[in-house]
Specification:
Blueprint: E1 5-12, E2 25-31, H1 39-44, H2 46-55, H3 61-70, H4 74-78, H5 83-93, H6 96-106, H7 110-115, H8 119-129, H9 136-145, H10 147-151, H11 156-166, H12 169-181, H13 183-186, H14 193-202, H15 205-215, H16 219-223, H17 228-238, H18 241-253, H19 260-265, H20 269-277, H21 284-293, H22 297-300, H23 303-311
Antiparallel strand pairs: 1-2
Length: about 325
């Protein structure tokens, strides 16, 4: 085993009982590397990072040594390109009590973590490895920040997705109430739509039904929306029989300019109609075929409509198609 060498010494100011600054004291940190480096250097040194990663194994004393060396610096490491790998590995290999202490150090910096291209991976790892009952403080930080701001962030949405997958209703109840109530708005956004998709796929039956109920009044319009159309497709793939019947009925009964035919002729809506065709639900394919066969000549000019019609066996005359 390589010798444990003393690393850089940090000077820490302390206060005496009167609240006045006392004499500084030395805070020593032990670095298990040869040559030794500081946690700050580790954050940016890929070679040193790889050597530390090699030490981190389950039930290995070296993992404990690394943990003790880096305590107090986990936040800085978590938002660095190299250091985030070390923090993630520690979350996998540490014993539960040390992992809890590591997470306690990270959670106050939740906002900085989810906004970081590297820190967000650490935060999602926290969600994946920690017991659901211990995720309350992290969820509280998200609530303080604002669910909408987190959901609409390109990395924050990933954290909410993992929480939906791993946390329970007990921890997520208040947050999910807000997400569901505003699901129509969120599903139109380039990032927050993934949160709604995750809720449809991994949420409880009750939560999924609540989302469907929120979106049904807007479903025909959402079906042709660049982003929300993906949510509609996910609804079709993960809904129960009762929900699916309501979705199909809503799409079939919508009047122009958001009728089934209009949706099929739109760039993004055409994929929703194609998804309907894959359901093999009794009467659905037949009704789609009938509707597309009698569509107006104006819709026949759409290349998207022509593509969907071909899947139904409906041939659009060449003279009707727009060059």
């Amino acid at each position: 085993m390589a010798p444990i060498l003393e690393c850089d010494r940090e000077i820490e100011e302390v206060e005496d009982e009167s609240g006045e600054a006392a004499q500084p004291r030395e805070k020593s940190a032990l670095c298990p590397l040869t040559p030794a480096c500081s946690p700050t250097e580790l954050a940016e040194d890929a070679e040193a990072c790889n050597r530390v990663m090699g030490m981190l194994k389950v039930d290995c004393p070296r993992s404990q040594e690394v943990f003790e060396w880096l305590r107090g610096d986990f936040q800085e490491l978590a938002v660095s390109k190299c250091g985030c790998r070390v923090v993630q590995r520690l979350l996998d290999v540490l014993r539960s009590e040390d992992r809890d202490r590591l997470v306690e150090e990270l959670v106050p910096g939740t906002v900085e973590l989810y906004e970081s291209p590297w820190g967000n991976h650490v935060l999602t790892k926290v969600v994946e490895v920690m017991p659901a009952a211990s995720l309350g403080p992290l969820i509280e930080q998200i609530m303080l920040r604002g669910y909408r701001m987190v959901a609409r962030h390109k990395f924050g949405c990933r954290v909410l997705e993992r929480l939906i997958e791993h946390a329970t209703e007990k921890e997520m109840g208040r947050l999910l109430d807000l997400v569901v109530a505003n699901s129509e708005e969120l599903c139109r956004h380039e990032f927050s739509n993934f949160v709604i998709q995750s809720l449809l796929e991994h949420g409880s039956d009750r939560r999924r039904w609540m989302v469907v109920q929120q979106l049904l009044p807007y479903l025909p319009q959402l079906s042709s929306h660049r982003t929300a159309s993906h949510v509609v497709q996910r609804m079709l793939n993960h809904s129960g029989a009762e929900e699916l019947a309501a979705i199909i009925r809503t799409l079939f009964q919508a009047p122009p300019p958001h009728s089934l035919e209009d949706v099929a002729a739109s760039r993004y809506g055409s994929f929703v109609v194609e998804e309907l065709l894959t359901l093999r639900s009794p009467g659905v394919s037949e009704e789609i075929t009938r509707r597309l066969s009698s569509a107006s000549k104006e819709l026949l000019k759409s290349a998207h409509f022509v593509r969907v019609a071909a899947q139904c066996g409906v041939v659009v005359p060449a003279e009707c198609q727009e060059c």
